[in-house]
Amino acid sequence: MPTEAIVAHGLTKRYGKILAVDHVEMKVPAGSVFGLLGPNGAGKTTIIKVLTGLSEITEGDAWVAGFDVRHDPMHVKQNVGWVAAEVILDDDLSGWENLWLQARLQRLETWKDRAEALLKYFSLGDRRKDKVSTYSTGMRKKLEIALALLHQPQVIFMDEPTIGLDPNTRHMLWELIRGVHTEFGISVLLTSHYIEEADALCDLVSIIDRGRFVATGSPDELKSKVKADLLEIETTEPVSEARFRAIPGVADAKPQGKEWVLRVSSAEEVLPRLLSTLKPEGIRRINVEKPSLETVFLDVTGHRIGQEEGEVMDYRKFYAQMRRARQ
Ligand SMILES: Nc1ncnc2c1ncn2[C@@H]1O[C@H](COP(=O)(O)OP(=O)(O)OP(=O)(O)O)[C@@H](O)[C@H]1O
Ligand SMILES: [Mg+2]
User: Fold this and answer.
1) Whose CA is nearest to atom 30 of ligand 1?
2) Ligand 1 atom with minimal separation from the 85 CA
3) What residue's CA is closest to ligand 1, atom 17?
4) Domains in the chain, please, with CATH?
5) Residue 84: CB within 6 Å of ligand 1?
6) H or E segment at 2?
7) Ligand nearest to the CA of 14
8) CA-to-CA dists, residue 110 to 142, 253, 258, 290, 323, angstroms
């Protein structure tokens, strides 16, 4: 196994006039969990498609599991697993039959021991003979991951592995994904627009916005780059930017919808000053945000990842995919 699971230089993908991936540099150490964090349309899925050889690279070079994606796509395909955001299971077959089908499709000769081990790892052993149509959403996702691991890949790509799942199931999957990496030594690249997911799961995170990597580092490194607290404030009467900026400790003030977002040196120090200064206008709501991947994202891109909006989108997208898959 090479020391790097994935390397990319100047990786670029155009769809006609759309620049979906824009000169990306990547270095994913073997045995790590790497996260691509970004909003809808940022280019996350496209990066997976070009790295797995499913879609042609427009410009630049990439190596996955030590193989050159442009010149040796067959070896790349043999050494990677892919968990798509779309559902790929056959509902009319049992869990075991889905594994059997996957083995047939990939022409695997010895797969049964591996399949047994995977069913055990994902606690699906006692439901192996049941049709997948009777599985819960979390069980389906686990089976999908098991299918992607059947041929013993070195690197697994997971496109939004917890999309549309409730928080408990999501947390259970986080454990299992971390386990895949620690127990089987497989490198993981996953995409997400959940900040907490990237924070909880990833050794390294690249924040992607409009096809470009805008920041890369461990979640802690990224958070430590933002040395400010954010205060979101909504007042009953309008307040001018100058009034905010005149308060000692306020580094920046930006309007965001009906609110203001203030960057402050320390929320604890600035809050009392803010409360006394804004007495006449009246404060409707204040929210204090300590550095998080969300604030890093806001800091480097100037906008939020749009998580709440994203979640509604998620469910729509997820059910649309389920419907398509079941037709
Ligand atoms: N086959 C395609 N043809 C044309 N444009 C495409 C194609 N696939 C993706 N794009 C465009 O490339 C850009 C990146 O899309 P991509 O699917 O990679 O985003 P994403 O980060 O995965 O978003 P999401 O979070 O919604 O899944 C978007 O502008 C999208 O419209
Ligand atoms: Mg996507």
Assistant:
1) 41
2) 27
3) 45
4) 4-223 (3.40.50.300), 228-290 (3.30.70.260)
5) no
6) none
7) 1
8) 21, 62, 61, 51, 33
